[in-house]
Input
Amino acid sequence: MNYYTSQRLSPSITRITDFTGVCCYLVEGEEKACLLDTCNGFGNIREYAETLTDKPLFIILTHGHIDHAPGACWFDEVYLNHADLKLVHQHASRSYRLERFSADPQNQTIPQADYCPDFTGKYRDIQDGQDFDLGGVSIQMIACPGHTQGMMMPLVREERTIIFGDGCGVGVLLFGENSSTVSEYKKSLEKIQMLQDQYDLILRNHGTFTSPKELLGNVIECCNAILEGRASGQKIITHGIEFFIAQAVDEQENRLDGKTGNIKYTADKAC
Ligand SMILES: [Zn+2]
Output
């Protein structure tokens, strides 16, 4: 079974989407190609990506979550901010994925053989600001601790495109030991704000996959609302966890004030 589809967004960026609706991005230069994330780990995403490019392919993970990291198993080494090492060891493990996915009746027709194996290669650390030159196209990795401690946002300089991924979006999740507090997250976003003149396009990994530029300022305002006690107080269940949401939303989780950008957080992160 083929779990992937693709869409070319520009001469050097292709979106690959898996059957669950999560996406990752293939960036190609004249000499190399880079897969930024790997989706949920069904089938063989390496084989699929290699049908889209004839350049040597390597992997960078934006963070260690179950819906982005597992497909890296098809490579001998992968770049990941080491702040997410503990997280990725849990989330990319085959037994953890089998347990999480097979609990959903929707996934019970997926053959166990299609769950990709455990990663046995090497995780190479990424430094904040590290550049990856693909030949005429370069990716700068920007650390943005928040959603996870090791969250990185790739900036594809020549395309003036930044991949916010799960790091900033319409409902950023801050919860558990792997996420930062809201005040730490706000500092990360203010650092990204300093780069605003270097990008025109924001890409994400879920939902609509893209956002207008005002998203960043709106999510910083969500941080301020939480820290200053002006958040909505509304509760919302996602992935079985009860979150507070910064700005009030309707049943489709669209903000009532019509703006885009929101934060879902557990009470322990509201500081
Ligand atoms: Zn995530």
Remarks:
- The chain has one domain: 4-269.
- Residues 33 and 54 are 8 Å apart (CA to CA).
- Residues 214-227 form the longest helix (14 residues).
